[in-house]
Amino acid sequence: MDAIKANTVLATLRVLFDEVRNLQGSAAIQTLIEHGRLAQAAQAAEEERHALNTIAMMTRLLETEVLSIDDFGPWYQSLDELVFRSARLVLLTQLSHLQALITDIQHHTPTTHMPQQAQYRLEKWLERACILSALQSELRRVDEKRTPYRPTNAHPSRATAIFYRASVIIAQFSIRELCRNQVIAKFFRDGARIDHAVVQCHCETVLGILELEINTIPDDLVNLQQLAVKQVSANHDPGFDEDRSHG
């Protein structure tokens, strides 16, 4: 995944999370109707419809950009899993790009032409490059805990689906803990300020994922999202196969 696609996925996740928050923060439409606040109920219903349509479109974008190139196949069990896989893929690809760039800088890029302060910042940042391999190891460990629970087909039993969603929620928690680690965050913040445009770009993308604070999406919103995705698919993709739906 190149930098452009990684930033496309990051931007999509940001919009998705914003709309999920909008849904969670909206007043209950039925309560407004019961209290005779019909105009507010109509507005809330329109906002909910818009948010769901946006979530559905963002879901389809993530499917297109992520499912064909990550390691876990073209189907997923929940929106939580799709979000996790998207964030994981961006992190892994950006870490890999950064490792390659660091090797190139250390062995092939002269730094004597750089201003002294810029050279100092680069050297101090390179001293902490072991953080990249440590993060990759932690992401592999998260995968090792989650993967054994992954269903072997797109229509698992209810028990299997419940166990797997629990494993995804635990994986999300692990990612959040990485995101809150100040040593990790400082490494990428510093990388976003060094005198190397490509390194800056990759570090900014990683920071974007770390700052998302990936949370579990409530079941009621997951169910609404699934209905919205099917509606968008039916409207825009005549060849949509229901076997690609997600629960």
Secondary structure blueprint with pairings:
Blueprint: H1 3-25, H2 29-34, H3 38-67, H4 79-108, H5 116-126, H6 130-146, H7 158-179, H8 182-191, H9 197-210, H10 219-236
Description:
With 247 residues, the chain is an all-alpha fold. It has one domain (3-244). Helix content is 73%, strand content 0%. It is built from ten helices and no strands. Helix 1 (3-25) packs antiparallel against helix 3 (38-67) and helix 3 (38-67) crosses helix 10 (219-236). The radius of gyration is 21 Å and the shape is globular. The two termini are 28 Å apart.
Main sheet: strands, sense, barrel = none
Radius of gyration, in Å, reads 21 Å
Q: N- to C-terminal separation?
A: 28 Å
Order of helices and strands: HHHHHHHHHH
What is the β-strand count? 0
**Overall structural domain count:** 1
Number of helical segments with 4 or more residues: 10
Average of the residue pLDDT scores: 80
What sort of overall outline do the alpha carbons produce when their principal axes are compared? globular
Class based on secondary structure composition and strand pairing: mainly alpha
Uncertain stretches: 236-247
Helicity level: over 70%
Give the oligomeric state of the chains in this entry, treating copies of one chain as homo and distinct chains as hetero: single chain
Our estimate of the beta-strand percent is under 5%
